[in-house]
Amino acid sequence: xxxxxxxxxxxxxxxxxxxxxxxxxxxxxxxxxxxxxxxxxxxxxxxxxxxxxxxxxxxxxxxxxxxxxxxxxxxxxxxxxxxxxxxxxxxxxxxxxxxxxxxxxxxxxxxxxxxxxxxxxxxxxxxxxxxxxxxxxxxxxxxxxxxxxxxxxxxxxxxxxxxxxxxxxxxxxxxxxxxxxxxxxxxxxxxxxxxxxxxxxxxxxxxxxxxxxxxxxxxxxxxxxxxxxxxxxxxxxxxxxxxxxxxxxxxxxxxxxxxxxxxxxxxxxxxxxxxxxxxxxxxxxxxxxxxxxxxxxxxxxxxxxxxxxxxxxxxxxxxxxxxxxxxxxxxxxxxxxxxxxxxxxxxxxxxxxxxxxxxxxxxxxxxxxxxxxxxxxxxxxxxxxxxxxxxxxxxxxxxxxxxxxxxxxxxxxxxxxxxxx
Amino acid sequence: xxxxxxxxxxxxxxxxxxxxxxxxxxxxxxxxxxxxxxxxxxxxxxxxxxxxxxxxxxxxxxxxxxxxxxxxxxxxxxxxxxxxxxxxxxxxxxxxxxxxxxxxxxxxxxxxxxxxxxxxxxxxxxxxxxxxxxxxxxxxxxxxxxxxxxxxxxxxxxxxxxxxxxxxxxxxxxxxxxxxxxxxxxxxxxxxxxxxxxxxxxxxxxxx
Lengths: 421, 208
Hints:
The complex is a heterodimer. Chain A is mainly α. Chain A has 18 helices and 8 strands. The C terminus of chain B is likely disordered. In chain B, the strands form 3 sheets. In chain B, strands 1-2-5-4-3 form a 5-stranded mixed beta sheet. Chain B is globular. The longest helix of chain B is centred in the first third of the chain and has 14 residues. Chain B has one domain: Beta Polymerase, domain 2 (2-Layer Sandwich), CATH 3.30.460.
């Protein structure tokens, strides 16, 4: 009789289903995974150490580059932490704008997550559909922040600037004729808010399209149902958060349980799973997109300039924290000094420590700051959800076939900028 | 201080009693400092006691306090240098706690592992070991996690230069990639400054 022994298989770091640079050392018994040992750190950039060498504002753009599939939501806990240390009040309009963009990025993230997970398990079409909508969201981010990905839009004390009044439009060129351009510009004829509103009206139809493609799809269910089951007790013990925890049936959402910004004024539901398998987590993400769409609609209604309550500043007027307007700076000595001190020396944050966390698209994303009163953080720790989720890889993949390891990586929704920091 | 935090502090005082090093509340967060000897026992109580129920460990990180504050003004020679700070969450009670433990020996910092209390701490402890060199007694798999295979040193310690000690380059003579001492000069664009209180007319922001 032939001798059968376990062998070790190297997966990644350059593998299309590894969602970045994950190196997975798999100990196999035939086609069954006996042990999965993720090797991470191939994208480690020491963001936390770099931030200790830069002023509080200078490190803000690093946050965008952590989870590069849902960019500006990453800045949120960081600015919230600084605001709490400083004791700065954020104008209400800025809070609504932040919440709106948090939810836009949540859709942005889940679209990628579901699209690429489908791609990993063999459904090519899905990613084409989801990236169609990601294009619209990238346009929204570009119109607001000037960058399609790394916005650097939130600032301690508010947001960098108010929403633009005009959405950029397409122009006729040798690739697009007048009729195509007219169709493309239909939704772009008004302000940014009009464009987002148009998007939120279209989006539920798109969600139905995705569900038609996947939810009752026989192959999709065969690949996902009963794979990577995590019981609620284990989910807590393994430190899960976000859709991973809710997929296991625990109704835990920081937006509801420990509300920040204006989430306590908004209406939304928290979807939870029953079985705790990959399919439930997919359903949770799908429903979260619909709920995010609902929140965006409420924010738009509030932010409309013609409603009196929506108007107001988007940045605090405390010039120890936020720069004065350009116009004032040019005409007033004191404002000039503020401007100069702010951009050379930076903000001085009182000594203390604070942990601030938000419900990120992937789970709980937290920032732990220790300040010793200087113009730079003393210690800056990022707590990313994907890091904890990936650490449960061994437990989730054990006993499954090798093809299911790919499904499990997909359901964790890991992004290596976030895991390796 | 909100009523909820007061309840939490009261329960902590009743349950832990003398095992509490210090218990402070600032900016709406409760911080508990315990000694390294009591660390693991306290963690178990925090998880299991029906009045506390910290069922999740959200985060654990190492901190190097060697240059904290105005290092010249305060003599830090005798005080503990490394700490492991963890953030706990109770999904059932909906409250949070920060737990800090200082390692007693600065040359060989070691604290107990929490892997059998909260399994999620596994990679966080590996990270703290990798970046700060804090040893976790009883951890079964204390390997480096974020730095490169064969990396030397603990990069997040305050005495580790931001540029590192070695750089990688291609050696045309040996026809392979080699490590050599760094060739770039360290420079500081914006110096680190701690201003006295109320500098430039800043309002006091000390609120508890």
